[in-house]
């Protein structure tokens, strides 16, 4: 399905990482602030939607007392759907798109006056269509929730391994007879990259990466059965030593 992509300045950090896939499925960390008069920010995320798309927006508070409020607006400024957190830390809004065009996802807070709230949050935007299949879903996350959710079988991910975040996990659906290829490349620091694939249900290690050099680890894995598998990235350090740094993970299913 061909898509027109639109970007907002708030997505600049991710544009370099994930090119044109952001409008399909993205997760972004952002902040709602209050000005001197207690007025809250209104954050906007432009997306291009086709008729028949189903867009799901999930906003989850990370810090502060933020009570998130989310809406979907068309190019004429008409509010098509909106949802408040109703006093909780998370709000979920799903909308069935009827017409092709430019839309905005808008996030603010639900408090009024002295009850206005603020804080950091994660917004996840997922756009699904009948033409997409579960084979194309790659779901990554990290222990501190600063993650990117993406779609498609070929993808490059950038992340950092350090003492606070020592490993990352990415779940991916692979069909029998296909080959999952991974390359974990150190970008800076002294990180000793280490990558593997484990069985989600048993947590047993199915494949271990090979160290091509101090900066690069590679892995190929061809499952005998179709299913979900877990990619793990971490560091491989001698006893008593630790390494850290940014890395690039290239994921491909062939």
Which descriptors apply to this entry?
five-stranded antiparallel sheet; 3% helix; single chain; disordered N terminus; six-stranded antiparallel sheet; mainly beta; 254 residues; 1 helix
Write the layout of secondary structure elements.
Blueprint: H1 12-18, E1 25-32, E2 43-49, E3 54-61, E4 68-74, E5 79-84, E6 90-96, E7 101-109, E8 119-128, E9 137-141, E10 150-151, E11 155-161, E12 168-174, E13 180-186, E14 193-199, E15 205-208, E16 210-213, E17 216-221, E18 227-235, E19 245-253
Give an account of the 3D structure.
With 254 residues, this protein is mostly beta strands. Helix content is 3%, strand content 51%. It has one helix at residues 12-18; strands spanning 25-32, 43-49, 54-61, 68-74, 79-84, 90-96, 101-109, 119-128, 137-141, 150-151, 155-161, 168-174, 180-186, 193-199, 205-208, 210-213, 216-221, 227-235, 245-253. The strands form 4 sheets. Strands 10-9-12-18-14-15 form a 6-stranded antiparallel β-sheet, with no helix packed on it. Strands 11-19-13-17-16 form a 5-stranded antiparallel β-sheet, with no helix packed on it. Strands 1-8-3-6 form a 4-stranded antiparallel β-sheet, with no helix packed on it. A hairpin with a 2-residue loop joins β16 and β17. Residues 1-24 and 131-152 have low confidence and may be disordered.
